[in-house]
Write a sequence for this structure.
């Protein structure tokens, strides 16, 4: 049986590939196991700067960071003063999207599924506003309250009813970066989205993407993010589970809203 | 009461605007009436070339032409050999989208709601293939039959179930220009679209637009289309109703599938 694949940080023990030698550190697509044989290193990126916690390369400097960067900057070109909404905002990607948008001077609102997460967004991640979607009987009304002028950019992690409410609140020439639709993954039939007609009159652009599409822009991304981390302009929260045996319950926790910040599994401390 | 507005061809009878004088011909947003007072000429374009039927400026050289051009060329950048699907393909815009895509060397399939329209698409407008969506119990299967390799570009006129089936058949980095969703306009609640998750993995870009967004590109558009018309490379079909009193039934006919080609109402022959 193939082991489950996932993104991780690894140390090279041995390599016959000209670009990799013993003790190199890499991040990228590896597996849920202690030792991996990597036969397709195109999904690996070498770690050059170790003056930050290595775990960052599973998050802010790894796939979630590149995802937030690519979806927000490359697809949506945020401009100072624009209104940005992020759903699943306390997650690994969402927390970064909001902070990256603040770096450009946007007004940023996030939603999450608990009071604790909402506080984190407002008090730790510097979002301008945040709300608990589980406490909002009317998502359209919640968005109208948070965005009386409408939304220019929506970073979509959720799908379904949330997307329907967002479409009603988008502004003309709004952009939607579709990163995922976590509310839909485990449904037998995905919910219907009813308000797509908004796309026409408002000339909305909706675009899906994968972090892998932006691998070639990793150096450009590091140039932006590394100084911001070192100057303390970016905050990053991890939820660490110790031991590979904790991985399955940690994965389930993502879908039930247990984790706060990037869910991480430490397989070996070094 | 305000008269209904619509796109038409008109002759200037009198003008105090510096750009317009008596006997100038214009096309653009006027009204359902014999004589109109136009106070906002930013929605008018002057007709310079009268070596084609004037009615063309309500269609292939007017709003539908600019709509087909903008949605297909500006939003979707079709390349030779790409697979293009057009719904409501025998309509004013659809017939042009298909032909414009053929000019670039795409493989083009259209759908329409009658055998007569399907024949027109294949035999008159030069579509590579066409089908009657009303005779297809399974739209997904129909699209798989017509596009075994999948769809690169979808010119969306219909919405609802058709969009859902198209999403399943889009290729990676596919583009959807959303021109309209005629199947949804008269529903109390629009149908749900269930397959939007396809947008992520396939990195689909979906974008709404209005012809008015491309007014500034009208000269560029004319340069492309006028020679193709004069060389007989473009075919254009009109459905002409005589007299303003026929306008209401002609409008209803669009929604019930009666018209073939651009529905036109002649208010005055010259």
């Amino acid at each position: 049986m193939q082991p489950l694949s996932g993104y991780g940080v690894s140390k090279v023990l041995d390599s016959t590939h000209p670009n990799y030698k013993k003790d190199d550190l890499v991040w990228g697509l590896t597996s849920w196991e202690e030792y991996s044989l990597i036969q397709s290193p195109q999904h690996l990126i070498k770690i050059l700067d170790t003056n930050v916690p290595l775990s960052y390369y599973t998050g802010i400097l790894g796939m979630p960071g590149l995802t937030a960067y690519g979806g927000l900057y490359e697809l949506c070109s945020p401009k100072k003063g624009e209104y940005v909404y992020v759903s699943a905002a306390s997650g690994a990607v969402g927390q970064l999207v909001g902070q990256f948008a603040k770096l450009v001077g946007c007004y940023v609102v996030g939603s999450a599924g608990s009071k604790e997460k909402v506080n984190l967004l407002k008090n730790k991640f510097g979002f301008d506003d945040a709300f608990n979607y589980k406490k909002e009987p009317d998502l359209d009304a919640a968005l109208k309250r948070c965005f009386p002028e409408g939304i220019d950019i929506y970073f979509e992690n959720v799908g379904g009813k949330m997307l329907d409410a967002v479409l009603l609140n988008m502004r003309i020439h709004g952009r939607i970066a579709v990163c995922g639709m976590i509310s839909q993954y485990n449904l037998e039939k995905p919910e219907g989205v009813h308000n797509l007609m908004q796309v026409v009159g408002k000339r909305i652009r909706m675009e899906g993407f994968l972090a892998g599409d932006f691998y070639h822009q990793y150096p450009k991304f590091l140039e932006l993010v590394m100084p911001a981390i070192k100057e303390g302009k970016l905050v990053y929260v991890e939820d660490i589970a110790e031991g590979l045996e904790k991985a399955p319950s940690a994965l389930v926790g993502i879908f039930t809203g247990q984790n706060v910040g990037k869910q991480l599994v430490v397989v070996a401390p070094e």
Q: What stands out?
A: The interface with chain A takes residues 159, 163, 178-181, 184, 189-210, 213 of chain B (CB under 8 Å). Residues 63-76 of chain B form the longest helix (14 residues).
